[in-house]
Amino acid sequence: MYAVLEVGGTHVVAALVDAARRQVLVAHRLVLDSQGQAGFILETLARAVEGLGPAARALPLIVAIPGPFDYARGIGDFTGVAKFQALRGVDLRLFLTERLGMDVRFVNDVTAFGLGQFLLLRRPRRLVALTLGTGVGSVFLADGRPVTTGESVPPQGWVYLLEYDDHPLEESFSRRAIVEAYESVSGLRLDVHEIAGLARRRDVAASRVMERGFGALADTLAPWVARFRTDLVVIGGSIVGSWDLIERWFTPRLASQLPDDRLVPIESAAGTPDAALIGAAHHCRELDAGPPTLH
After folding, report:
1. Residues contacting 65, CB < 8 A, separation 6+
2. For 56, which of 52, 92, 121, 167 could close a Cys bridge (C-beta 3.0–4.6 Å)?
3. 141 - beta bridge partners?
4. Calpha distance 199→211 (Å, rounded)
5. Is the pTM of this model over 0.85?
6. What pLDDT is stored for residue 291 in this prediction?
7. Where along the chain do the CATH 3.30.420.40 domains lie?
8. What is the pLDDT of residue 273?
């Protein structure tokens, strides 16, 4: 059994997870302002775990949190992102250990999501998991283990570090990029779900913006899907609500750039929102088990 804390930009979820059975037994959610002051953020994280009850204090705590972050040391970085700037340089492990008296570990939130998908989706041998919402999160998994180095994956396995048309990918595909692109051609500032709704109704400007965004993502990702010899691409995040647009503009564009012998299925995330909680607990269980024994 593990206590899990999943930290997002607008909320935090604390849960008790049976890693062996891949079950979330108890979970509750608190509102969190990722752009708030450090004291407020830290207090919210601690209260979320305390809400699991005193018995949870005897369990290991695994914290799934966005990067950039020093996961080994438990210290915030968050360089180049708007979220959690107040936690830059803050020792979260020290704070949580002293406040809660628990053994605290950390994992990237997208890695936790990907591990959860690996467990829930037939354990594909080579899996690329994406979270598409505010930005582009990614993890490349080989036999359930993150691959962060080598010629078959982007630096650290992070697609958002890649460029499209000589600019960072997230300048072409992200919530901000889509909102600004539509505003530039229409004069209206709408959110992504509103732009997606217009695209479904064949609005020309909205359709062009969404097609260009998904095209940029597909063009950037395709070489890495091929190099990694991917068996499955799974997509989570708020963009899943626009799955019909993914199938219209992303899936065929990606498929058209893969070798003829690489028919790679693209699926919507399974088991959300529990997948990241299950994946984080699995990661903690793997840490406790240690490296595999070689025979």
Report:
1. 7, 92, 106, 107, 108, 109
2. 52
3. 127, 146
4. 9
5. yes
6. 59
7. 2-111+273-289, 123-268
8. 79
Q: How high is the mean pLDDT in each 10-residue block of the chain (295 residues)? A: 93 95 93 93 97 94 94 91 90 97 96 95 92 92 95 95 94 94 96 96 96 97 96 92 95 92 88 88 84 47
CB count, 10 Å around CB of 199? 23
With beta carbons less than 8 A apart as the criterion, state whether 89 and 41 touch.
Answer: no
Q: Where are the beta strands (DSSP E) in 42-161?
A: 61-65, 69-70, 75-76, 104-108, 126-132, 136-142, 145-146
Q: Which residues pair with 15 in a beta bridge?
A: 4, 27
Helices 38-50 and 92-100 cross at an angle (nearest 10°) of: 40
Residue 240 tokens read as 């899943």
Asked if the 123-268 domain carries CATH number 3.60.15.10, the reply is no
For domain 2-111+273-289, the CATH superfamily is: ATPase, nucleotide binding domain (3.30.420.40)
Task: Tell whether the torsion through CA atoms of 282, 288, 290 and 293 is positive or negative.
Answer: negative
Cβ contacts of 281 within 8 Å, gap of 6 or more: 2, 4, 17, 18, 19, 62
∠ Cα 92 98 100 (to 5°): 90
Q: Which residue has the tokens 């190099």?
A: 227
- What is the helix (H) or strand (E) element at residue 44, kind and residue range? helix 38-50
- The secondary structure element, H or E, covering residue 38 is helix 38-50
At 290 the pLDDT is: 66
- Cα–Cα distances (Å) from 288 to 60, 63, 91, 106, in that order, read 10, 15, 22, 13
Confidence (pLDDT) at 293: 43
